[in-house]
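Chapter summary example.
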Amino acid sequence: MEIFRKIWKVKDLRKSVLFVVLMLVVFRMAAHIPVPGINTENLGQFLQNNQILGLLNVFSGGTIENFSVVMLGVAPYITASIIFQLLTMVLPKFEEMSKEGEAGQAKINNYTRITAVPLALLQAFGLIKLLSSSQAGVFDALTTFKFVSIMVTATAGTIFLMWIGELITEKRIGNGISILIFSGIVAALPGVVQNIIVNYNQADFYNYFFFAIIAIVTIVGVVFISEGQRMIPVNYARAVRGGRAAGSSVSNLPLRVNMAGVIPIIFAISLVLMPSMIAQFFVNNTGAIGDISKKIIELFNNQLFYGIIYFVFVFGFTYFYTAVIFQPQKIAENLQRQGAFIPGIRPGKQTEEYLSRIMSRLVFSGAIFLAVIAVLPLILKAFTGTQSLALGGTGLLIVVSVAIDIARQIEAQMTMHEYDRVS
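The structure predicted for these 423 residues follows.
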């Protein structure tokens, strides 16, 4: 309550928090506006029997189950972000653009937004084709006009959420896209709790007990890794004035164990779901394409294979995203420009190599720990056979990580306000 009171007393921070809450209310309202001509009861039954779409529905906050105007969520934008972050590592043009500071990043963001539009159209097309060919009675009468209208509406909904996400990011409360995913998962929690209460029986006690232990381990682990950091001592060169040394100071350069935050989990889930999602579109085809699609779906339904791929993707994306946001060359150049140095390390190239070596060790520990926590719910499912626990554990991982990021950014803004007030 003391923290909320302090937030409320800071005018700018209060406005930012209220604005973010308002945007989330708008998002949840849009998530409950269904597209006309949809049998939501049949759709809900179909999603329960489809693991891939069921997982997508959980992370979208029920937007697919309602077949709302924002049914696709921010998935196309995330896919576009993955594409362009990969391009910055491969193509020299985008690599140079990423080094141009805010101007270069603005260009990449524009390309990402533009690319998200055709990806949203493609995903909407695939989702409608999948549901219409499932014989589940989802659509009352799917005409060409209705088909195109739903595609355009879903794409517009994704663009609308992209805009809301960027508005939230501008308020410096947290990453807007992550907060939208966070709110979608949290919005689904009451339904999950209700299902647990309604379907609970004495035989499931130990299953839920073990899940509670995993939940506690996940929360503690994510907090431990997110807050863990190594302090690198930095000395600033002394200036000689009037025969005396002056202006010397000692500081620390903090290197976080997990600089990537929740982004590796979101990226990993997007890529893990993609092969099965694409295969669902061709599973009813005859011939080799249909057979290959069925084998892909069977392969990713194998929990051992799914867990290994998920582990590898989380581990790999933690390294990848850290390499994107942490650039030791720039840090070494800035330290040298400011007359600073790390004790025992020469400025310039040796400082860059030293920071790269230290960060590589930190990221390895963080990536291993994060990947293990990510697959813990799947291990639990192997013993309990309960799918909802696996989904809940993955969602919990995202919720805790985003909550930590929000708390950290709010604390930073409060600290800045205290400095401004004192000065």
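To summarize the output: The domain at 1-197 is CATH 1.10.3370.10 (Preprotein translocase SecY subunit).
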